[in-house]
Specification:
alpha+beta; single chain; 15% helix; 166 residues; five-stranded mixed sheet
Length: 166
């Protein structure tokens, strides 16, 4: 079982934290399960970078991910795991920086065709592979973007009125 990585770890990537590749070639009918454990610097996730406070991109810890593939009972392939990070967003109440931690559990079904994707939509969350490529960075970024709050805000008690600096 992979060790969980807290979003409050040091911002530098340690030697023990392996950088995840942007994408991997995935043999759909692989004989053995695969594991991907590592980190992705926020600087490599352009859509998230656009949403964050500019000075925070280089100071926050990287996104930590522990992902694995498993064969499902019906012969398909399941991708599951965990993604953890902390983003520096802007509070919609006071417009000040707001650290927003994420700890996401993933469970996706890897599919190779749009027909399989449509067929499985009612039963699970399918992920369409692009010519047998598994886009790890894009997948991680997509899952974080989907989990973002529509209007991030400090708690009402800790948020100063608009225009008053802390």
């Amino acid at each position: 079982m992979p060790t969980s990585v807290s979003p409050t770890v040091s911002p530098s990537v340690s030697v023990l934290q392996r950088m995840l590749p942007a994408q991997v070639r995935f043999a759909y009918h692989a004989v053995r399960p695969l594991e991907f454990n590592g980190v992705v610097p926020l600087s490599r996730l352009p859509r998230l970078r656009e949403l964050m406070q500019a000075d925070a991109v280089d100071t926050l810890p990287p996104v930590a991910a522990q992902l694995r593939t498993e064969h499902a009972k019906d012969g398909g392939v399941q991708l599951s795991g965990r993604v953890q990070c902390c983003l520096s967003l802007r509070c919609e109440r006071c417009l000040q920086p707001l650290d927003w931690p994420f700890d996401l559990e993933l469970a996706l079904r890897l599919v190779r065709s749009e027909a399989d994707e449509r067929r499985l939509l009612d039963h699970c969350e399918p992920l369409l592979l692009d010519d047998d490529w598994l886009p790890l960075h894009r997948l991680i970024e997509d899952e974080i973007l989907l989990a973002l709050p529509m209007a991030p805000a400090h708690s009402a008690e800790s948020c100063p009125p608009l225009g008053i600096n802390r």
